[in-house]
Here is the input.
Amino acid sequence: MFSFMPNSVLQMSTIFLSIVIEALPFVLLGCIISGALQVFLTPERVKRWLPQNRLLSILLGSILGFFFPSCECGIVPIVHQFVKKGVPVHTAFAFMLTAPIINPIVIFSTFIAFGNSWKMAGWRMLGSFIVALIIGVWLAYFQKESVLKEKISVKTSDGHHHHHHGQPEKAEATARPNWISRFTRQTGHVLTHAIDEFFDTGRYLIIGGLIASAMQTYLPTRVMLTLGSTKILAIIIMLLLAFTMSLCSEADAFIGSSLLSLFGTAPVVAFLVFGPMVDIKNLLMMERYFTGRFILSLIGLIALSVVGFTLFI
Here is the structure.
């Protein structure tokens, strides 16, 4: 039926569909979690649960992903909701960087992909943890400007109120609802917010998927592969490949293992650490919520941290 179309367009369409189909469940899950955070997470609870010490707060954010695993496809709405609700930026972004890597599913898939060996899984976890600490310290002690866009910040002040339209305060004061009606109402608020978030974030996923599939189809990957003659150059090439391919962290280890004999350990570790932290889908979703200057600084520091870490492997 599509025989009249060039092969490159058909290839690009196939890659685009595979990216979107692979990412959509995780984006939906991320939006549902974001909706739950919108309803149930209050600034008072945040202050009560999080340690006041900044370093301890960064460490907590870094290990939180192991207990609350999330793919990078759906992590941005969760982090945005964290920041809106008063979670310190250094804690939220430490979680964003490690959750797609330091979680049981990704650890196990990396272990399997590299022939039931813990070596690459260990390097990957250590690398993501170190990068998260560096970014967390930068955000905690050196980043003074607001990371949220102004229009998002304005919405934040009354965003919670929007989900309570049609709930008269007098009625709540006079007749305390039983737990069933309260649960039903709160579930409705969660789903309402999740649907809004999903359609808001989904368009960025579609645009990101189109760009990633076009780059995979038309970018001369063979030329890039032949450039990896020195270690530092090979690492940089692998960062570009990770960004271009925009794979989910559950699947990228199998691609990385196929490149191991060509590039060696350090560049492949760079590919496995950098990819879940920075890819085209994430970049466009972050652009929805965070300032451009902050995103550029964040990406630059992540890239430098990954390169610095893998040079010592």
